[in-house]
Design brief:
It is a single chain. The chain has 652 residues and is of the alpha/beta class. It has four domains: 56 residues, no CATH class; 231 residues, no CATH class; 124 residues, no CATH class; 132 residues, no CATH class. The strands form five sheets. It has a five-stranded parallel beta sheet. Strands 12-11-10-7-13 form a five-stranded antiparallel beta sheet. The chain has a two-stranded parallel ribbon with strand order 1-2. The two termini are 27 Å apart. 38% of the residues are buried.
Length: 652
């Protein structure tokens, strides 16, 4: 496409471009990697000549450097057709897991943890492990590739692989574009499409192709054999010097489009979801990641928080999945900013923040200092939940006009709290119904504006306006919920009332639950009022649920007890019910999968599901889901994020 846009700008069209007319269909592959302006230039040119255009791409892969995100706009405005099968992987369960990974769903990690695909160490041992695993695969005759997030790490891996191969005099060498030298037997990768370098009548040298050097010419050119198809071509010196690099290892960005038998990649924890997705989809037989979870011995690094409270590999991977850096166009950002569900989350947070700031600002002299001193003596100020508890106490003081310290602290004094991990969180729950946070807020679990704050000439009008905005946006979310069934509700076969669906939609928007999270009320809320209301919603959902979920929970408690504490459990029980409806013996499949061996400590329910999926002789087609009592059409969460994989269905 780059050549086409250049030709259009310079009036130098190739023959095929000149022949575009009303009978022409132009397919632009990897459209997600194209910047919006280039894509617009190409599309406008084609349709101006009467042709038709089809874009094929993945908006969750790494995008172009220029402005992008147009695929999301097209999908939101006109819809899109999604491919139903994925052929890259030899294991259908891995194919399905990559789709969950693509959408940032933590359950995907269960597959990789269960299969021993996640390895940990310090930066040095991770590099050693990557190289050793790569070398082992190469020795077995597999086409393996090493990936790393930075050029510096890639250079170290490439140099080590080349030194190991040579183990002596290299012979005649040629200079490559990355500054390295290469000789006969080296693995190289080409970095630029060149249609003049033909390997067949219909194929040519492309960016991302990997080759073995067969012969080095005195002119600086090389004769090479393609790793995958065995085709042979001669690369001239000018191409070698500008567009060829060592190919034992490469960066994640450069690997997009590369396919190998196995992949071994370094993960530092700073990657985005799109980088992790690209990394774990390069090998069609297996993909392994090596996560640096400890420091490298640098004494200065000890000062960093992550080195004081070390994160596990699962922690790092979950943070990566939550780091969505897919490009968004101005149109997408504007559309999201105008969505009442998006606005409600921000408005709720601002209302609460303003309320707590006002309560502290208008507190009587000495009240705040007295509270902080009491908390300091009790060792609470370092507890994670203390900021939340502090705000609640000051708000209660603003409502009652009294000293906020004695009552909540005495309520928390017994029974003994020495075994608690977070004493402040215990205080929050024990005093939730005691300290008198004002009710009547814009949403059932939100505090109202105390009379003393409402009467203040400065804070009163502002807080009331904030409260009204939250209520108005909540009404809009309820109204929108009447038009279509959200993805989480489509997961349930129970006949959910329109009122309950609307209330949960408001809850999800206000607490900013990710659209891809199919748990109806999202992650557990830690605050007293929010946690209590969430429990009430979950209870109402359970009362409306006529499925056999209790049966599955009882069976899982016997066969795989750790699964019952996994947030993925509700979705797992849904899928087990779907399997039964599709004609499979889900009970036997579950027992067989659980009996394969111990499940990983993290994401055990996800791991169990991937084991079950692997046992199916043929992936069952997605079974029709009972639409809730509203009778509305079901929609996926693709309005603001990419849609999740189907609960059942052949791997895409």
């Amino acid at each position: 496409m780059a050549k086409l846009t250049w030709s259009i700008d310079h009036g130098d069209l190739s023959g095929w471009a000149q022949r575009i007319d009303r009978s022409t269909l132009v397919i632009i592959d990897e459209a997600g990697m194209a910047d919006t302006l280039s894509l617009d230039t190409a599309v406008q040119f084609i349709i101006s000549r009467g042709g038709s255009v089809r874009l094929v791409g993945d908006d969750q892969q790494l995008a172009a450097i220029g402005a992008g995100g147009v695929l999301r706009d097209i999908h939101a405005s006109h819809g899109a057709v999604r491919l139903s099968e994925l052929h890259r992987f030899t294991d259908p369960a891995e194919a399905a897991a990559t789709l969950a990974l693509r959408d940032g769903r933590p359950k995907a990690l269960g597959f990789y943890l269960d299969r021993g695909r996640v390895h940990v160490g310090d930066p040095t041992t991770c590099l050693d492990a990557v190289f050793n695993a790569w070398h082992t695969d190469q020795s077995r005759g597999l086409d393996a590739i090493m990936l790393a997030p930075t050029r510096e790490l890639v250079s170290r891996l490439n140099q080590r692989a080349q030194d190991h191969r040579l183990a002596g005099a290299p012979g005649r060498q040629v200079e490559l574009a990355d500054g390295n030298q290469a000789s006969v037997g080296d693995l190289i990768i080409t970095r630029r499409n060149d249609r003049r370098l033909r390997i067949t009548a219909t194929d040519w040298v492309k960016n991302g192709d990997r080759w073995i050097i067969l012969h080095s010419r005195g002119t600086g050119g090389v004769r090479v054999r393609h790793v995958r198809n065995g085709r042979i071509v001669t690369l001239p010196q000018d191409y070698v010097g500008t567009s060829v690099e060592l190919g034992y290892a490469t960066t994640v960005h450069a690997a997009q489009g590369v396919t190998a038998d196995t992949m071994h990649g370094v993960v530092t924890g700073e990657e985005s979801r799109q980088q992790l997705y690209t990394t774990l989809t390069r090998g069609h037989t297996s993909n392994h990641i090596y996560v640096s979870v400890v420091g490298d011995g640098d004494p200065h690094a000890v000062l960093q928080p992550d080195n004081v409270h070390l994160r596990t590999a699962t922690d790092l991977l979950e943070q990566i999945l939550a780091r969505d850096t897919a490009p968004q166009s101005a149109s997408t950002l504007l559309r999201e900013q105008q969505d009442p569900a998006v606005q409600l989350g921000a408005a709720t947070a601002r209302y609460l923040d303003a309320l707590y700031v006002a309560a502290e600002h208008l507190a009587r002299p000495g009240v705040v200092a007295n509270l902080d001193q009491s908390a300091e003596r009790g060792g609470l100020t370092s507890e994670p939940a203390w900021p939340t508890v502090r705000r609640q106490i000051l708000l209660a003081a603003a409502a009652a006009g009294a000293d906020p310290v004695s009552e909540p602290f005495s309520a928390a004094a017994t029974p003994d709290m020495t075994s608690a991990d977070d004493h402040a969180a215990v205080i929050d729950w024990r005093t939730g119904g005691v300290i008198g946070v004002p009710g009547g807020g814009p949403l059932p679990w939100l505090p109202g504006v105390p009379h003393r704050l409402a009467a203040d000439p400065n804070w009163g009008p502002y807080l009331n306006a904030r409260s009204q905005l939250v209520a108005q946006l909540a009404d809009q979310v309820r109204g929108n919920a009447a038009a279509e069934t959200p993805a989480w509700a489509a997961q349930h076969h129970a006949l959910l009332s329109a009122k309950l669906i609307a209330e949960i939609q408001v809850w999800r928007a206000a607490t900013q639950v990710e659209p891809s999270d199919l748990r109806p009320t999202g992650p557990p809320q830690l605050g007293y009022a929010a946690g209590l209301f969430q429990h009430q919603l979950d209870t109402r959902l359970a009362a409306a649920d006529t499925r056999t979920e209790p049966q599955w929970r009882q069976l899982l408690a016997v066969e795989a007890p750790t699964v019952t504490r996994d947030p993925f459990l509700p979705e797992l029980t849904e899928r087990l019910s779907d399997l039964n409806r599709a004609g499979y013996d889900a009970t036997q499949l579950l027992r067989s999968a659980a009996g394969t061996g111990p499940l990983p400590d993290d994401h055990p329910a996800g791991a169990l599901w991937w084991r079950i999926l692997e046992q199916l002789p043929q992936m069952p087609a997605e079974t029709p889901r009972a639409v809730p009592a509203t009778g509305r059409k079901a929609v996926t969460p693709s309005a603001r994020r990419s849609s999740p994989p189907p609960a059942l269905g052949r791997s895409r």
